[in-house]
User: Fold this.
Amino acid sequence: MDWLSYGVADLVPFSRDTWRALIAAYNRQQLPAVAAGVGIGVLVLWLTAGGRPGWLRAALALLGLCWLWVAWAFLHRELGALLWAADWLAWAFAAQGLLLALAAAPILASGPATAPAWRAPGWWLLAAAVLLLPVLAWAGGRGWLAAGWFGSAPDATAIGTLGVLTLLPGRVGWLLLPVPLLWCALAAARLYVFADPLWPLPLLAAALALWLRWRGGR
Assistant:
């Protein structure tokens, strides 16, 4: 088998229309969860805005719940029939959810209060994932039901989580980066195959998160 003959398009076993129909059907069936995910996103924005360690721990715990939900409801139940690697990705998302919950423990996420996080680029990356990405999807002709919402769809959840991880002190943020970074790479590849003009956004989010972590978070 000549692996060099395979391209990025060969790794995406569905069309753009199929993906959008899948997202729309998922959002329609899980409408309460979609609304809850958006509510959690807004709550995480509020919890992380003040720079208080206790509130940051609560935000990490809520993010962990979102990752666990996406692992089971979207990757395993919805995507499993279309993509052979969906269950492997579901396990990765579940592990990320558990790690976020573990990072919420006071012994790992403790520290003094810091400057208000809303001044940090990472906080605005979270805000973009919660509030801006659905608007961009709608502006691109997807419709609100076909948009991927924070807390219930993987793209926005991964990008928003990267924003929060840039706010964490110490090395914990580095340990939690690999899975969101991996998904951003996969999301960019999928959007590129779909000829979606937004395909660079996940890569830009990943690059920004790495740069912010490298320079010390905030």
Q: What stands out?
A: The two ends are 48 Å apart (CA to CA). The first helix runs from residue 16 to 29. Residues 40 and 100 are 15 Å apart (CA to CA). The chain has a mean pLDDT of 87.
